[in-house]
Amino acid sequence: MGEQDVREKTRQDELRVFLKHVLRDMQALETMLDEGLFETDVRRIGAEQEFFLIDSTWRPASVALEVLEKIGDEHFTPELAQFNLEANLEPQVFGGDCLRRQEEQIDHFLGMARTAARELGNDIVMTGILPTLNKSDLELDSMTPNPRYYALNEAMTRLRGGDYEFTLKGIDELHLHHDSIMVEACNTSFQVHFQVAPEEFARLYNAAQAAAGPVLAAAANSPLLFGKRLWRETRVGLFQQSVDTRRTTPHLREQVPRVSFGRQWVRTSALEIFREDIGRFRSILSTEIDEDPFEAIQSGRAPTLKALQLHNSTVYRWNRVCYGISDGKPHLRIENRMLPSGPTPVDEVANAAFWFGLISGIASEYGDISASLSFEDAHTNFFSAAQNGLNCQLFWVNGRMEPARKMILKQLLPLAGRGLEVSGLDRKDIDHYLGVVEARVESGHTGAQWQLSSLSGMGGKGPKSEQLAAITAGMVSRQEDGAPVHTWVPAKLDEGGGWQQNYLKVEQWMDTDIVTVNEHEPVELVAQLMDWNNVRYVLVEDDENRLVGQVSQRGLLRLIGDYNPGQRDSPMPVSEIMQTEPVTVAPETSTLETITLMRRHRMSCLPVVKNGHLVGRVTERQFMIMARQLLVEKLEKG
Q1: Each residue of 543-578: pLDDT tens digit?
Q2: Which of 135, 354, 455, 546 is deepest in the core (most CB within 10 A)?
Q3: d(CA 334, CA 44)
Q4: Cα(60)–Cα(53) distance, integer angstroms
Q5: Closest to 79 measured CA to CA, from 65, 91, 92, 94
């Protein structure tokens, strides 16, 4: 999430002062590039490993601060939500056994995090999106108490002009309304960094853009969100919408989202990206600046460019240019933000090897890829891969288009291998890591496909929450074994620890597929819906989808007994017979409390409401299913 030292609330005059510092940093950056002050004699790679913290029921556990305290290592940092953590790997010189050393570091840091989490009764899992997340996990009380996150949420929401709307469509559809940026916390990544010299930046950045689609297609690991099957890499669509500050306008004005693939190839310099981002995106955070970058340059020190870096951290290109300092020397690097966390360390490093190798191979064999591949094709590849994974079609040089699996196996993996070899990496490691990608692509068995296959293999048995818990539990056990995902067998329903853990709260098992009526519709429609759907209650919404009432079968029977059709000129509206202000529960209500309410009020149907809007219902029939499962389990054990 970037620089942590920020003002929690920033006035407009402070933002003006801060933007002046950003512009001065840009002038200093131009000077440093003109005078050749950047490190050019070494290439390094690095990575940031993000993961989820989960409890004994395989659901998110907001214990990041306690885990950090127990770990006590500066490589670990908090993230936006208290159920996320990040470990920052040490940079490696790009060559020799750097990939193997990167995997060893991931294993080491994950071991530290897993030990600390388990001492607190929790665990960790690496996945792009945690299958067991519920919308209630994204309330502000789950946000890490850090001024940067509060400031970011306030600024993004203010720029957007209100709440956030999310729409994603895959096999299922998601339409979601939320009041904060906390939806961003659904995503965790494996962010890799590639240091480049200024004079080669344009060529290598364009190569990284061209490599994005093919690499993402092979790496997809985020197909499920709130139980819905969406994109193979749902993170891409979700992240763009979660920090989108654009407002709708009455005219066809082009607006670029803060999360983007970019608009065009880079022509000559990294300055093009910085300039565009400063010009298009307002400064939304500020901090105290106590350094004049030109004084630092004159004294022989590399300036921190703190203002520029803070602004850059609030613009989320999928391949982002970063400024940094190593051993006192400034450098530029490309940060790959598109790769998901997981499924295992070896899978992650294999994905990184494919990306590093393609960048090097493309630059070596094509020069500047912008002369051979249109930017529109690279852009299309990226979003097609995010939506369809290995099932997408990819464009390549000279207008060629082929199925992703064929192109990756026949052309791009060999190209990546040559790129890694030219860069001086050990041949044994090249074969090993690219071999993992090759086996995954040949089988079609990505992390995303494993999750979907596991869900399909459960055949509708058990509630959705139990299925998602089993998938999460299956990931944890297989990640600890360490074998790459293409060797995994599908998760089984019993891996989640049984149904009991998945009926704790209403949101885990409530029915969200509800047929309702509007308060202005005729009563006859209610009678027909009861008959067609074999239900005794119909819920009533207004035009804003707010719950305004409920009609019971008993109430309808009373109406029939008293009804005289000659007394009315038009059909009776539902509003005249519905029970207003029905008893409701929230999604977070415990199952025991819900049972108590239903017994107290002698109800067989209880609406589930959040902020006045109907989100689900619970019925006696669902409790009968629970009781049947409990009886069968007890009898089998007895």
Answers
A1: 888 899 999 887 777 766 555 555 656 788 888 889
A2: 354
A3: 11
A4: 6
A5: 65
